[in-house]
Every structure is written in structure tokens, then in C-alpha cells.
């Protein structure tokens, strides 16, 4: 279970963020702090994995507090949730290693996407002593999942067709939350493994699927799983 501390001076916003967190499996809210002084006191007593942090608060602001966390070399991550949209503050937050940056107001789907991407990366890193360059590249790309939001009528990459994408997607949705391999999907869709691999790469690149490389006997095998927090990313292409 990923333990979360919410640092937010507005009680109503803090309560809403708590409600949002509790709707995402695998997370629990360990505490709420109304300012950074209380947050520091809380961190001295309780182990936390993730902080949801506002910027504009009494005392240290969120950016200064994030800087303090890094100076203390604390083994935790931070997602900024704030109305502050100035590019300088965003750059500062990213340079200090913020895992994500949500600008108020935002929809629950974006909040859920941020937590699911964080959980996916968290467990992948917890389960391994080492990662390959390829795995690391995928994890780093997920920090800003799939880039900007696609617009309606977005064109598919060269070589992909809507009809086949529909078919591939139907099989993926029937599979639900279960993981599957390239070979398993190719057999179910009844098209070549090479063709299926192109569609899976595209779906992983836009964040619709989570991709993992499984090591065992023989060659490594790619495993895929539907990212339920990012299903909206496929709609503009269908």
C-alpha cells in the first residue's frame, strides 16, 4: 500500500483530494497537513511514500518545501497539486524531481492517471534491483504520460488502420485488467505478431497500455495491461 500525505491549507480541497486518493486502489491517506511546518512534524513521526503538495501556503511554500525534502535526502516522492501555473514554478518543481504537476481545477481522470502512473513506476522499481536502459526509458517517459492530450480526429501512425485498431482494442477490453503478451494478442486477433507489435507499441506510447519486460528462461517477453486511468487517450484515434 502506498502511503500518502496531503499538504494543503484549504480544508475543503484537502478533503476532496483525500476522497480522490481513496478511490484509487493501492493508496491510503496517512495524514493531512495544513502547512509545511505540520508536514515536517508529521514526516518526523510517520514513513510516507508520496506527498500531494500545494504551492501557495503559509510558511514555506510548496517549492521551498520540496527543496527542503531533497536537502534532507528523504526517500519519498512529490506530486504538485496547485492553481499555480507560472512556467518558472513548474520548471522549479520539475528540476527538484516532482513526479507530476496537476493544475487546478482538474478532472478526476487526470488525478487518477497521475496516481496510476506513479503506482506503476513505484512497483516496477520496488520489484527490481536493476533495470535495463529500455525499461528506464519507458519509466522516464511515463513521468509525463504520452505527452500532450490528443485532439479529436488525431491521425494514426503510418502503417496502422482504424479497422484493425478497433479489433485489437475490442480484444484488449475483453481481456479486462489481465496482462497479456504480443503472441497471445496476435493469436486472439488473428493477425501477424509483427503487425500486432506495431499496434501495441503505439498503444503503449500514448499511455493506453502499460508495458513491462519480463525476464525468464529464454528471451525476455513484453507483457501489457490496460491502463484504466488513460482509456480516454485512445478515443481521438478511433
Provide an overview of this structure.
With 238 residues, the chain is of the alpha/beta class. It is built from 9 helices and 8 strands. The chain has 2 domains: 123 residues, Rossmann fold (3-Layer(aba) Sandwich), CATH 3.40.50; 92 residues, Arc Repressor Mutant, subunit A, CATH 1.10.10.10. The strands form 2 sheets. A 5-stranded parallel sheet has the order 2-1-3-4-5, sandwiched between helices. Strands 6-8-7 form a 3-stranded antiparallel sheet. A hairpin with a 6-residue loop joins strand 7 and strand 8. Helix 8 packs across helix 9. The chain is elongated. The relative contact order is 0.10. About 3% of the residues have low confidence.
**Overall body shape:** elongated
What fold name goes in the CATH topology slot of the largest domain? Rossmann fold
Percent of residues in beta strands:
15-25%
What is the fourth-level CATH superfamily of the largest domain?
Answer: Response regulator
How would you sum up this structure in a few lines?
By secondary structure, this protein is an alpha/beta fold.
Protein traits:
238 residues; alpha/beta; Rossmann fold; Arc Repressor Mutant, subunit A; 2 domains; five-stranded parallel beta sheet; three-stranded antiparallel beta sheet; 43% helix
Secondary structure elements and pairings:
Blueprint: E1 2-7, H1 11-22, E2 27-33, H2 36-43, E3 50-53, H3 62-71, E4 77-82, H4 87-95, E5 100-103, H5 108-126, H6 133-141, H7 162-175, E6 180-181, H8 182-189, H9 193-205, E7 209-214, E8 221-226
Parallel strand pairs: 1-2, 1-3, 3-4, 4-5
Antiparallel strand pairs: 6-8, 7-8
Helix pairs in contact: 8-9
